[in-house]
Amino acid sequence: MKYYIIAGEPSGDLHGSNLMKGIRKSDPEAKFRFCGGDMMAEVGGRENLVKHYREMSFFGFVQVALNIRTILSQMGECCRDIMAFQPDVVILIDYPGFNIKIAEFAHSKGIPVHYYIAPKVWAWKEHRVKALRRFVDKLYIIFPFEKEYFRSKGIEPHFEGNPIMDAITKRCAEAPAESDFRRENGLDERPIVALLAGSRVSEIKANLRFMARLAERMPEHQFVVAGVDWIKREQYEVFTADMPVKFVCDKTYELLQISEVAVVTSGTATLETALIGIPELVVYGIPWFYEKMKPYLLKIPYVSLVNLNLQREAVREMVVYHPSVDEAEKELRSIMIGGDKREKMLSDFAELREIIGGAGASDRFAADIVKTIQNSK
User: Fold this and answer.
1) Which of 127, 141, 166, 235 is the most exposed place for a label (fewest CB within 10 A)?
2) 3-class SS at 237?
3) Is 101 helix (H, G, I), strand (E, B) or coil?
4) Would you call 151 exposed, middle or buried from its count of C-beta atoms within 10 A (0-12, 13-18, 19+)?
């Protein structure tokens, strides 16, 4: 069968590649056409890559407004390519601003639409639920708490676990020995505090300076920024140049594995950190206006995926205009080795892993997609 897959950012490329591998297991004759990245191209062939996510990644109102002509052109190109390929199914991976429009188009042409990794409409832009209900034939969710939410909106979602576990299991199994990792990355023997300041420049600007200030308070630990390869190192160093902070790039899981604790910006990284088993403090600096409006704009009780899935505050969230360094230091010390909150947090993380499920989710999702399309023929 023929599968058209669209991922518009790095995480989508990762999960898309694992999904494609799973589809091949269930459908050895699978043919792919896709928008994504290098990992998807390794599976489906670079000749089948229509657009790289680097050409498609526009986030925030200003970026979208400035690039609206490019975005509309890309949508048109994608729609024409779908019709030329004539897929048995269009599979959309998160990236809702773009993908919901593609869902509407494919639906209008009678092509089945499967949405893999549902948009986080429970947090913002809930109006998108109407489009999901109207244009998507099957919705795949990766968080257990989403079941009740989507059912309440008239959508029956499908859950097979979380593909993050596949990525974590693979990368951690392939990680070098701790002594080798420290030596190769210029790290000394002091305990490590990992700093995960986000995967976008705007997040780094909002959070990294504050995180780095904690390093001045704890010279007995080494603070290490986990960088991503699509952001230049200089854009991190603007905020850490005069701070006792080190840097590694594209080695987040490997760094977390050997860290004592982490300071994490809200997002998928909060869940990844917890699933690896590293106690964490969640910090997210927001504009003063957002802080005032948060009770009216935020539809969810927590911002971290750890707390949302456990439905309680298992990790401390400091989501404010001016986070307190004193308060953050106190909280961080409480979850370090010997701290009074560490064991309870680790116990909560063990419960979280049970809720999320083990590795193999990508294959299970893929098998369901193949089976659903085969049964519809």
Assistant:
1) 127
2) helix
3) helix
4) exposed
Tell me how far apart the alpha carbons of residues 197 and 272 are, in angstroms, rounded to a whole number: 14
pLDDT tens digits for range 101-143: 999 999 999 999 999 999 999 988 889 999 999 999 999 999 9
Whether pTM exceeds 0.90: no
Alpha-carbon span 268 to 250, nearest angstrom? 15
- Identify the CA nearest to 194 among candidates 184, 208, 175: 208
Closest by alpha carbon to 116, among 144, 99, 94? 94
* Structure tokens given for 245: 């902070």
CA dihedral 132, 134, 137, 138 (to 10 degrees): 30
CA distance 366 to 175: 27
pLDDT, residue 70, reads 67
Q: Amino acid identity of 182?
A: R
Residue that the structure tokens 């079941």 belong to? 147
At position 125, the amino acid (one-letter code) is K
Q: CA–CA distance from 127 to each of 83, 102, 123 (Å)?
A: 28, 17, 11
For residue 199, the model assigns a pLDDT of 81
60: left (phi over 0), alpha (psi -120 to 50) or beta: left
Which structure tokens are listed for 242? 């005069």
Closest CA to 119 of 92, 137, 138, 144: 92
Sequence-separated (6 or more) residues with CB below 8 Å from residue 64 = 58, 71, 97
pLDDT < 50 regions, the chain? 58, 61-62, 288
